[in-house]
């Protein structure tokens, strides 16, 4: 047996091992080095050799990045990987294409391969079982041992056993349980002649995993509380999913408060792909996916949809951002880092390995020193943010690797995938075995311990590729036969999830390519649109992936469907998504006494509900179910928007006046009264939501088993409700503001929002309206179109912001003689200054002022006889020094004032005081702060945002003891309103007293909603 290390032996990256065994050559992995100049393994060694098969341990770039180049030389050679790695490889290699395209423009770097070559490479993939033994037809006499490696989803260790030797390649391995994947399983191949073992952390001992996870979660929460965004750059495959589950769990347990968590970059696609590979995840996650939940979503986790959102996130509510790349070498994480690095209140938390030349390594070095500059994303930033590192490694440490070697008892161990220090440290831990530290390019000839035969008989390999179609094209009538073949066995049968590529291999055989995949896609889409496919159910968010239906489901789907209101695939439902919200949903599956639905784009990411949550059946979906789930969800969102507009044209009073008191109606009956056609889904949706939104006007009597729909009647108070105006459709102010926020975020220059309660028209007050119109005009026009209301920007600029900006931009040699004067009719700010400044510096200040505000700055400068040393003083004459000023403000306000932080802006001469409840503080301490401003010479402002944690604490103090909160309350900073849902009962007077006490203590309104 000969083993040749083509890359990844004496360092991390470009992992690639060639093996001659059983008279044939095979290859394990073909990666690239993520950083550095020499990116590729020594593929020239393969020239002239007949490469029988290629095996992949997992889908990280340092193990698959050069695979298309190998395929280009050996186009007929099959590529074996676990099914999970097959799907993830498609994601990772297509992302590599995008990265190379960007480098071709920015760095004139020639791409290694193109889209066509990647597609051809993916067509040669063949699935390996996740655990156990198997064989490959290209390697007769060789038993292949596959064991879960625990590193990331789909990662495996590979063993090869033949007469001339036994080899075990660990791949990247983790023996510690993670939140997304189970730890490595013990390989079935014992006492190999050679163990090729990774040594990434051979010199380390990992800290307690759960303790480190808690440290990370607490650090994120502390960073948010400190007043800054928190960025976690994370590897898109593996580490990012771990981080999301850690934060999700901590928020669910209540060990950290709820705050927004934004997911960006390649992380989004990998998270979606994980939902299609439950067999590679932990049992808990498998159960979640089977129950219809996306395990990477919650009400606080949101996915970034467009690049424009990134600026909005940084300008909006404080949040944690989890984004690739993990080393800050590119991707959205580099963008966020350049904006956050200079902010002392922001945090960048590192959770993974950093290459020597990666910006992430430089960032850690700066954290250990006294700060400095960082070149990242083509920009240079002065690093002032908080930096920390957390050990969430997906690699085994030195003691774990040594224990693995002891258990496997190999004759020799070759330590690879680590730096010199790590390999040397691990070698010292190993005993009773020969230890080899190979270099890249080195070949080892291994003699077997004794002439041997395979210790295990290979089980049939679960490779889809039987070619049951025998050369005939797949048609719609062949789908039952294809379904039966897939159900009969193979990797897919265990998971009940299958992809287009696997189906193509089953029908067309191992040579199936892009044309055959397209034929399968067309066959699955060619059925009657009104008759959903009873055999394969398309999965949400993953085009080309399907659930395989069970036989009893096929029988149910074939049964007659007599009622148009029966819940079945292809029907549109009104679903109670959570207590306070109903949404439109399209049923695509029914099983286990549940309905499985697609929800509108942008809504909560959940797709399984109990049947009782289906409140009404609105009718069949026009066009039927298609595999293009993204388009279906977008169309559902459009129907929701159209229904809101429909309700504006048809007020509820029109329906109430046509109904007869004490008579019961179905949705169909009421649609007839309103002249809504049976196929008018928008009208029927608007009607169904109207009936549930006005409880003083209409009453829902529950579901009628005979029609499987709800029954409705007029409420006894309907006449009083009409007289009180309940019958007039009033705008949903919260929803309108949420539309505005979704389009423009929460930019810091937007200081007030107002909504006309009668018309819904929105007025936004920005510090500098002209700049805001140029910056947000397009986004606001889109928001206005979606909400169907007028949205205007108030033309008045904020006078305090104008004065502060003018003062902040003055050249360092000038100081104000008096406060700036504003000429509103001319859009001019005039300042009178003493001191000296060059004409160039003065003009630069004027230009910058216009750029930032849209106003003109006029500087009247009178010469000063003061010496230059006085002119350049950082503290203007008469202003108290920073530390003394802050100390005086703190001592004057005292501990009971609720002041928890004071920010200093030296350039603007401003102290910003943060109170837990700023509205109350404004009333109590405005005069005190004015006096302090005069005494210190600093301009003192009150930060307008209330402290979320303090609001929630105050809510718990005033809430009647017989009530308990459900979930976290919702905060609306612009309206100074906190909305909380409770369980239990209390007297109305007790609720009113609680609301009054909350308002008196905080200056906020409290809205209490009872569960259900």
Describe this structure in words.
This protein is an alpha/beta fold and 1012 residues long. It contains 32 helices and 47 strands. The chain has a 7-stranded mixed sheet with strand order 6-5-4-3-2-1-22. Strands 7-8-9-10-11-20-21 form a 7-stranded mixed sheet, with helices on one face. The chain has a 6-stranded parallel sheet with strand order 14-13-15-12-16-19, sandwiched between helices. Helix 5 packs across helix 6, helix 24 packs across helix 25 and helix 29 (882-893) packs across helix 30. The longest helix is centred in the first third of the chain and has 24 residues, at 83-106. The radius of gyration is 33 Å and the shape is globular. The chain starts with a strand and ends with a strand.
Helix content: 25-40%
Gyration radius over CA:
33 Å
**Unreliable runs, pLDDT <50, ≥5 residues?**
451-464, 490-495, 864-875
Number of helices: 32
Rounded mean pLDDT is: 83
The shape is globular
Largest sheet, order of strands side by side?
A: 6-5-4-3-2-1-22
Quaternary state of this entry equals single chain
């Amino acid at each position: 047996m000969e083993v040749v290390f083509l890359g990844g032996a004496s360092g991390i990256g470009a992992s690639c091992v060639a093996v001659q065994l059983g008279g044939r050559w095979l290859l394990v992995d073909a990666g690239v080095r993520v950083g550095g100049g020499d990116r590729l393994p020594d593929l020239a060694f393969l020239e002239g050799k007949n490469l029988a098969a290629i095996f992949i341990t997992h889908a990280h770039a340092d193990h698959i990045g050069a695979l298309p180049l190998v395929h280009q030389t050996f186009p007929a050679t099959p590529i074996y990987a676990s099914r999970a790695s097959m799907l993830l490889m498609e994601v990772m290699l297509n992302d590599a294409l995008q990265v190379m395209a960007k480098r071709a423009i920015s760095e004139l770097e020639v791409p290694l391969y193109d889209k066509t070559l990647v597609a051809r490479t993916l067509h040669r993939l063949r699935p390996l079982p996740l655990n156990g033994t198997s064989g490959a037809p290209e390697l007769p006499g060789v038993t292949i041992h596959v064991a879960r490696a625990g590193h990331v989803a789909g990662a495996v260790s590979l063993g090869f056993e033949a007469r001339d030797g036994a080899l075990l390649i660990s791949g990247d391995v983790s023996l510690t349980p993670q939140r997304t994947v189970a730890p490595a399983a013990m390989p079935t191949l014992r006492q190999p002649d050679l163990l090729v073992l990774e040594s990434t952390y051979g010199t380390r001992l990992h800290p307690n995993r759960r303790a480190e996870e808690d440290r990370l979660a607490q650090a994120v929460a502390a960073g948010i509380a400190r007043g800054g965004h928190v960025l976690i750059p994370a590897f898109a495959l593996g580490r990012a999913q771990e981080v999301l589950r850690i934060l999700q769990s901590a928020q669910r347990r209540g060990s950290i408060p709820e705050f927004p968590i934004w997911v960006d970059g390649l992380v989004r696609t990998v998270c979606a792909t994980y939902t299609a590979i439950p067999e590679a995840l932990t049992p808990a996650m498998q159960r979640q996916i089977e129950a219809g939940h996306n395990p990477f979503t919650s009400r606080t986790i949101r996915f970034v949809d467009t690049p424009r959102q990134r600026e909005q996130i940084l300008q909006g509510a404080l949040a944690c951002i989890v984004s690739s790349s993990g080393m800050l070498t590119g991707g959205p994480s580099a963008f966020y880092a350049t904006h956050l690095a200079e902010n002392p209140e922001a945090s960048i938390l590192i959770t993974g390995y950093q290459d020597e030349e990666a910006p992430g390594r430089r960032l850690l070095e700066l954290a250990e020193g006294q700060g400095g500059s960082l070149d990242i994303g083509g920009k240079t930033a002065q690093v002032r943010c908080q930096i920390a590192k957390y050990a969430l490694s997906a690699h085994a440490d030195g003691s774990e690797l040594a224990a693995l070697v002891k258990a496997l008892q190999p004759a020799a161990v070759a330590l690879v995938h680590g730096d010199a220090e790590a390999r040397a440290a691990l070698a010292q831990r190993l005993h009773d075995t020969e230890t080899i530290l190979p270099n890249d390019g080195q070949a080892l000839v291994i003699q077997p311990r004794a002439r041997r035969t395979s210790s295990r008989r290979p089980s049939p390999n679960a490779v889809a590729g039987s070619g049951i179609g025998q050369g005939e094209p797949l048609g719609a009538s062949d789908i039952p036969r294809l379904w039966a073949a897939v159900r009969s066995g193979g990797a897919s049968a265990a998971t009940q999830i299958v992809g287009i590529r696997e189906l193509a291999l089953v029908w067309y055989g191992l040579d199936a390519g892009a044309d055959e995949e397209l034929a399968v896609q067309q066959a699955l889409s060619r059925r009657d649109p009104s008759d959903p496919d009873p055999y394969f159910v398309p999965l949400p968010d993953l085009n080309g992936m399907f659930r395989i239906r069970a036989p009893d489901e096929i029988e149910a789907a074939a049964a007659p469907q007599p009622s148009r209101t029966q819940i079945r695939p292809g029907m549109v439902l009104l679903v109670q998504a959570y207590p306070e919200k109903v949404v439109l949903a399209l049923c695509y599956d029914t099983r286990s006494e549940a309905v499985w639905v697609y929800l509108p784009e942008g809504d909560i990411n959940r797709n399984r509900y109990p049947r009782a949550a289906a409140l009404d059946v609105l009718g069949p979906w026009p066009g039927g179910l298609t595999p293009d789930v993204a388009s279906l969800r977008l169309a559902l969102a459009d129907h929701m928007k159209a229904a809101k507009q429909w309700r504006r044209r048809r007020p509820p009073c029109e329906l109430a006046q046509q109904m007869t008191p004490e008579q019961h109606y179905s949705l169909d009956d009421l649609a007839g009264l309103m002249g809504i056609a049976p196929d008018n889904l928008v009208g029927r949706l608007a009607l169904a939501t109207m009936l549930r939104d006005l409880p003083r006007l209409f009453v829902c009597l529950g579901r009628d088993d005979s029609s499987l729909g709800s029954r409705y009647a007029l409420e006894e108070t309907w006449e009083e409700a009409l007289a009180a105006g309940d019958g007039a459709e009033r705008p949903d102010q919260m929803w309108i503001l949420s539309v505005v926020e979704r389009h423009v975020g929460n930019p810091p220059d937007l200081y007030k929002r107002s909504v006309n309660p009668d018309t819904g028209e929105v007025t936004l007050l920005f510090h500098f309206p002209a700049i805001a119109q140029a910056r947000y005009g397009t986004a606001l026009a889109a928001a206005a179109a979606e909400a169907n209301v007028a949205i205007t920007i108030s033309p008045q600029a904020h006078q305090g912001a104008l004065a502060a900006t003018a003062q902040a931009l003055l050249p360092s040699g000038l100081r104000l003689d008096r406060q700036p004067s504003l000429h509103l009719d001319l859009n001019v700010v005039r300042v009178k200054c003493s001191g000296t400044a060059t004409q160039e510096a003065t003009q630069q200040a004027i230009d910058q002022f216009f750029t930032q505000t849209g106003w003109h700055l006029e500087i009247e400068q009178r010469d000063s006889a003061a010496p230059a040393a006085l002119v350049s003083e950082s503290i203007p004459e008469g202003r108290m020094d920073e530390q003394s000023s802050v100390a005086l403000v703190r001592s004057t306000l005292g501990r009971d004032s609720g002041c928890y932080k004071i920010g200093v802006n030296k350039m603007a001469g401003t102290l910003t005081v943060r109170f837990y409840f700023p509205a109350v503080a404004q009333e109590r301490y405005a005069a005190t702060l004015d006096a302090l401003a005069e005494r210190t010479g600093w301009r003192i402002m009150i930060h307008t945002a209330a402290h979320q944690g303090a609001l929630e604490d105050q809510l718990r103090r005033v809430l009647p003891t017989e009530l308990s909160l459900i979930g976290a309350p919702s905060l609306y900073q612009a309206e100074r309103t906190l909305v909380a849902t409770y369980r239990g009962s209390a007297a109305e007077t007790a609720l009113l007293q609680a609301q009054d006490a909350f308002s008196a203590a905080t200056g906020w309104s409290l809205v209490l909603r009872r569960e259900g």
